[in-house]
Amino acid sequence: MDESPKSPTTKRTFSKRYQVITILAKGKGASTLEIGLIYGMFPIGALVISPFYGLAIPFVGTRYSIWAGLTIEGIFTIVFGLMDRAKGHTNFVIFCALARFGIGLGTIFYATALFTIMGVMFREKVASVRGLIHIFIGIGFGGGPLIGALLYSYGGFSLPFFVTGGTLIIVAPIVTFILPDFKEPQTSPYPVLRKLCKLPYVTLLVIGYTITISAQTYLELHLGAVKVALLIMIPVIVYIVLGATVGFLADKFGHRPFVIAGLVLVGISLQLIAPAPYFQLKLLKPCQDWNYNRYYVIKDLFYLILRLTRSLPLVIVSLVILGIGLNFVFIPSYGDLLSVAREENVGDNLAVYSVTSAFISVSRCSGLIIGPVIGGFLSSLPSLNFAWSTSIIGFTALLQALVLIIYLIYYNRKRHFRGTENKYKRLDSCEEREDDESISFQDKSDQNQEDKSEKVSLGIIKSQQD
């Protein structure tokens, strides 16, 4: 079978993660816009509820949230498995969209609670724990399509959704019983939300996370057959191999360097994967003479890079770089938010953990929506193709990394000056205290001298009277 983009069968089969749903929707007469709406209802539902549910966790509690989330997602997953029985084009689109919306709601319920539990139980090792979780996420992404394909071959469209939804419903009470329950109804999350929203670094971090998710989602929808298969599998392998290591190193050496490095790696990979159009500019030619200086060594090195831009090995290398960058951004981000909250004295309670987990959920859902929309808009412009669109999104990630670096330099200098000023204030207060003590000591000595003089005078007067 032809693996080029010109092969419609190959592209239809491999270019989307949920290709079975796409085939069913087209069979029901759904348009491309309606199929996009069905896919988009999952992040839309999650985005709608995530800010509010992050505020509700201290009142509802983590245990009930996990049970409700898994149960709701399981029910709507089973409902989605019945969509092949829907009568009529309109009914199919409406019920598919509602089912996907419900799955998004359930996902946010337990995901927000899971992040909150992670923050409460592992305050100093959040990234390490999340790295371990990413290992199992990678196993799920790698094994899920295989198991789904086997179930589909035996039971058709409905069986994979029935098995997945039923498993979630059965596992929900077990997980709820095992995991601890955290609830602080007396703690108000609204002051925490206001304080975090006023911190510039929180906003920059959320934007960086959103850009990373947008890039990944955009590539899934616009790459060719082989590249999408690699895009799904390579990050999975990177998650399994590097997840725990990245989390441990981020907790030990700091989260922010990894987040910035991750954005840089994502930006570089997006320049290579298309490849970027400026790589095709014929500005360099190989040097024929081997007796050349350092300038020609660099020149020929760039020429070799340009010759690799259209090869599959470079695509694989760029996807490996992308997988490492995704790990660097996803794993330390939550721990970085908690570090900012502690540094700025926002607090260290359940409200802080629930609100910061809501920030992560909002970033992820926004990226799932923005990526296809912005990428599709850029690709639809006559003057821009996929290569230029991917390059622009990559430059956005690089620009965000640069903005983070500039802000952190400014923030560290400001904190240094603030610490120096506080140090001088403390020295001044100590000197003033010493002056006050010396003055009070002098006053006491003068008072004692006066008392002695009075006593001597009284003794002389008394002796004269005698």
- Note the beta-strand portion: under 5%
The secondary-structure element order is: HHHHHHHHHHHHHHH
- Count every beta strand, where a strand is a DSSP E run of 2 or more residues: 0
Large-scale geometry: globular
Count, helices:
15
- N-end to C-end Cα span: 134 Å
| Low-confidence regions | 1-17, 282-297
Describe this structure in words.
The longest helix is centred in the C-terminal third of the chain and has 80 residues, at 386-465. It contains 15 helices and no strands. It is globular, with a radius of gyration of 31 Å. Mean pLDDT is 77; it is low at 1-17 and 282-297. By secondary structure, it is an all-alpha fold. The protein has helices at residues 8-14, 19-27, 32-60, 62-81, 89-121, 126-155, 158-178, 190-197, 200-222, 225-253, 256-273, 294-308, 312-343, 350-380, 386-465. The N and C termini lie far apart (134 Å). 83% of the residues lie in helices and 0% in strands.
